[in-house]
Design brief:
Structural class: alpha+beta
Organism: Rhodonellum ikkaensis
Protein name: Nicotinate-nucleotide adenylyltransferase
Radius of gyration: 26 Å
Number of domains: 1
Keywords: Signal
Strand content: 25-35%
């Protein structure tokens, strides 16, 4: 019995000595559109918005079917059921500007508190989140267009990302 255990023990070490070492190719991580993500990030609006913005950031223009050497700018659209982004890229894949629109997203706490404070008794029926970004100027506009209802009456309200009524 001791010989069998000893043989299995030695056999176990022999199998590991024949293992192969596989080297993986290097992965290049590009951080060219981090400024866009930093500028448009708005906590509390939902993971769908963040996922679509991250996808637009990570889009590899040079390896896409749309890339040709002769053009200086490229306009690419990204869609999800609740929103869309139209992004302009330069020939190196950097985001120049975006126009974004998202429907019925989760409102940030500041916006929701401002609406309930200023319009008590009204309920939020729909909302639209709009973002305009320009590379040289950063975010030019972040606003929420909110449709409020009270019985048969309706009212439209615009707020910025901090809840200030526009």
């Amino acid at each position: 019995m001791k010989k069998i255990i000893l043989v299995l023990f030695v056999f176990g070490f022999m199998i590991q000595s024949f293992a192969q070492v596989i080297t993986l190719p290097e992965v290049e991580v590009l951080a060219r559109n981090y400024k866009y993500l930093d500028d448009v990030n708005l906590p509390g609006v939902g993971s769908a918005v963040e996922a679509l913005q991250r996808y637009a950031t990570e889009f590899d223009l040079k390896n896409s079917e749309y890339y040709e050497d002769e053009y200086e700018k490229y306009f690419i659209s990204f869609f999800i059921p609740d929103g869309k982004i139209l992004a302009a890229y330069d020939k190196d894949g950097n985001i120049l500007r975006t126009v974004e629109k998202y429907k019925n997203m989760k409102l940030p706490i500041e916006v929701a508190q401002s609406i309930t404070k200023n319009y008590s008794g009204w309920t939020i029926a729909e909302n639209v989140y709009l973002v305009n970004y320009h590379d040289n100027r950063g975010v030019m506009k972040k606003e929420f267009k909110i449709l409020l209802e009270r019985g048969n009456r309706r009212m439209r309200v615009k707020t910025d990302e901090l809840g200030n009524i526009l």
